[in-house]
Amino acid sequence: MPFPDRTQGPLPPGFPLAATDAAGQPIGAGTRVCIPCLPDWLIHDLPEPEVAELRRFEGRSLPVLHIDAYGYLWFGENSPRFCLRPAEVLVEPIDSSGPG
User: Which domain holds residue 53?
Assistant: First the structure.
């Protein structure tokens, strides 16, 4: 599924969001991040089954599938499912303890 992106006209003030996590680490498409908890703005109007489905992503490491024109990070399994602001995630440290 292609990602819809705004391509015409100026973005509202404050956008695009900075592509840095809650600790100031840079984020790009493909970066693995941890979602500590889902923000209320995302789930407050959803039916409970959808909230339960999204809650299974809490505490998990996921790759950023896409960063849209506004700076929102898109996540899902194989296709975009939901988005978060960059400051709502933490970049996963790269494991450098492997064979080398």
Answer: 32-91
